[in-house]
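Researcher: Good morning. I'm working through a list of sequences from a screen, and I'd like to move beyond sequence-only analysis. For each chain I'm collecting a predicted structure so we can compare shapes side by side. This is the next one on the list. No need for commentary yet; just the structure.
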Amino acid sequence: MDNLKEYIIEKGQKAKLAARVLSTLDTDSKNKALYAMAKVLEENMKSIIDANSIDMKNGEEKGLSKSMLDRLLINEKRILDMSEGLTQVSKLPDPIGEITKMWKRPNGLTIGEKRVPLGVIGIIYEARPNVTVDAAALCLKSGNAVILRGGSEAINTNKVVANLLSGACKECGLPEGTVQLIETTDREAVNIMLKLNEYIDVLIPRGGRGLIQTVVKNATVPVIETGVGNCHIFVDESADLKMAEDIIINAKVQRPAVCNAMESLLVHEKIAEKFLPIIAASLSKLGVELRVCDEGKKIIMDSIKDEEILKHIVDATSEDWDTEFLDLILSVKVVPSLDAALDHIYKHGTKHSEAIITESYSNSQRFLNEVDAAAVYVNASTRFTDGFEYGFGAEIGISTQKLHARGPMGLQQLTTTKYIVYGNGQIRK
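Model: Good morning. Structure tokens for this chain:
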């Protein structure tokens, strides 16, 4: 692209103009556009899948892992799921214009707090084409214009999907810059977006640690940091071990390449001899490599003689406790107490999602109170940290920061507030 900066600035200008219109757009118009977007995806399944097949072939040639290819894959079911996601968002309450509170001052001024859009949102993301749809839906419903910059792995799929969504918006009378995609894989495009303060109000990076840190460290545009998920499950001494096994398998195996998948297992030493051989056998049969501390490895080796299981058991390194594997790999550590588990999570966690399996009410409450994370679970899989599962319809990402938004970011998290003040001639003395 000859003049990349001009290209990006033009996108920003269109988005800024669109944002002004979208901020006052009525709910029915937004919902009509969302329905049209859902319909156009279903009507153009073949073109989407054809484009995705190119991306999948390129990904295989580049040597992407099976889990990454799964993130990239688009098929008929996933298109229907994306369409359903758009429909679900259309049914959610419109947050824009909501008066969250109102009060009257002694001088007669009536002051209210009103929910309004953020403006222009830039989304920088990797691999998963469904993010294109989720981001467009949530930004539109919350009255924001969106500029999308997906990863090179999904460029062909994203181009087709974004053009379909943008076209549906235009058909419904929405402004041209409502949904835009940066249609180049040139990494310099990201660098330009990071400093496009005149046109972009907030940036949301969604992807691996490298991408997120690049955005956070280099952006002058405000950033909502979405999370790397080094998620832990702690099996307490009072845990129901069958429940623990089921939850761990779900949290690790169901979709290992997503940010709410479990990456580290902590097991109380009082149940380690009984539980570790059980979970090691179950996970190894599902293809999971276990990177185990010395104490845990000895327990497993003393109890299991099946070589097919044992070949999945390796020594943990210090780096493993801090790694988001996004694959069928799990770090495993035996800990002497709840306090030790809390200390480990505090040191190595990424403030995303953490869980305890326990029958102890007091331990569950300590875990809920003391763990610093966006989502904390008692006797449930970390895989539930998701906008749809929380009833938000969809999500733009999982925020692990503490400013403005935390956890699954749905419609309300894509808004801000302004104060509205009614008077009858008051002047300040």
